[in-house]
Specification:
Length: 240
C-alpha cells in the first residue's frame, strides 16, 4: 500500500518564561509512497521541530498532520500511540540506547517489549550492512558516537515501519560511516520505505528524491532530485 504523509499549515508556538516564540510558522508538504526526503535549511529554521510534529511527538499549535488521511493528532491517545509504534520509526539526535544492553539487544528491544517475534535475518543483515558485526555483543556504553548512531538507525529500520524519521542521522559520523548510513537509507527507500531525514549536509540531501527547504519556520520550497550545487545555490540566495 502507498503511504501518504500530509502536513497542512503546521504552526507551533512555545511559551517560555512568558515569552512566546513561533517556531513553526506555516509548514505544508505532501509525501507519497516510498522514497527518501531530506529536510534542509539554516540552523534554527525549524527542521527538528517540524520532524517532531510530523512524527506525532509534538502537537502543532494549529494545522494538521495526517498519515493516509488520518489526522494523527485527532486520534485518541492510545490509538496515536499504537499508530506511532506500528507505523513510524525514529532516529533522534540523542540516540536513546540502553547503555548496558549490547548492540543486538538494543536493536531487538522494541520487538521484545511488544512480545513480537524478532526478525533475526533482518537484524543480522542490518548489523552487517552498518558495519557493526564486530560490535554486535558490545554494550552500548562502550560504543563510539558513530557506532551508537548506526545502532540507533538499525533499531529504527528493523521494524520496517512505513515511515522512518531521522534527525541528522549522519551528524556524528566520519565520511566512511556517513556513506554506509546514506547508502542503506537510500536502499531502504528503494525497497519501499518512506524515509524523512533532517540534514545539514547538502551532498546527503542530493541523494534524496525530494528536498524540503525550511527558512524561518516555514517550508519555502520543495525540490525533486537535485545536485548539491543546485541546493547550495538556492540556500545562498535565501540567505542573501
Ligand atoms: N522548546 C523550545 N522552546 C523555545 N524555543 C525553541 C524550542 N524548541 C526549539 N526552539 C527554537 O526554535 C527554533 C527552531 O529550532 P529547531 O531545533 O527546530 O531548528 P533546526 O533547524 O533543527 O536547527 P539546527 O539545524 O540548529 O538543529 C530555534 O530558534 C530554537 O532555539
Amino acid at each position: 500500500m502507498t503511504i501518504t504523509l500530509t502536513a497542512r499549515n503546521v504552526r507551533r508556538a512555545v511559551t517560555t518564561a512568558g515569552v512566546t516564540t513561533e517556531i513553526l510558522q506555516g509548514c505544508t508538504l505532501e509525501l507519497k509512497g516510498a522514497g527518501l526526503t531530506a529536510v534542509v535549511g539554516p540552523s534554527g529554521s525549524g527542521k527538528s521541530s517540524l520532524l517532531m510534529c510530523l512524527s506525532g511527538l509534538e502537537q502543532p499549535t494549529s494545522g494538521s498532520v495526517s498519515i493516509d488521511g488520518r489526522d494523527i493528532y485527532r486520534q485518541s491517545a492510545s490509538r496515536r500511540a499504537s499508530m506511532l509504534r506500528s507505523e513510524i520509526g525514529f532516529v533522534f539526535q540523542q540516540y536513546n540506547l540502553v547503555p548496558f544492553l549490547d548492540v543486538e539487544e538494543n536493536i531487538t528491544l522494541p520487538f521484545r517489549l511488544d512480545r513480537a517475534p524478532v526478525p533475526r535475518a533482518v537484524v543480522s543483515e542490518l548489523i552487517e550492512s552498518f558495519g557493526l558485526s564486530h560490535r554486535r555483543r558490545a554494550p552500548a556504553r562502550s560504543l563510539s558516537g558513530g557506532e551508537q548512531q548506526r545502532t540507533a538507525v538499525c533499531r529504527a529500520l528493523a521494524r520496517r515501519p512505513g515511515i522512518v524519521f531521522a534527525d541528522e542521522p549522519t551528524g556524528a559520523l566520519d565520511s566512511q560511516s556517513t556513506r554506509l548510513v546514506l547508502d542503506t537509507l537510500r536502499r531502504m527507500a528503494d525497497e519501499g520505505q518512506m524515509i524523512v531525514m533532517v540534514t545539514h549536509d547538502l551532498d546527503a540531501a542530493a541523494l534524496a528524491d525530494t528536498v524540503v527547504v525550511m527558512h524561518d519556520g516555514r517550508t519555502v520550497k520543495t525540490f525533486g532530485r537535485s545536485t548539491g550545487q543546485e541546493l547550495l545555490a538556492f540556500m545562498t540566495e535565501l540567505r542573501a
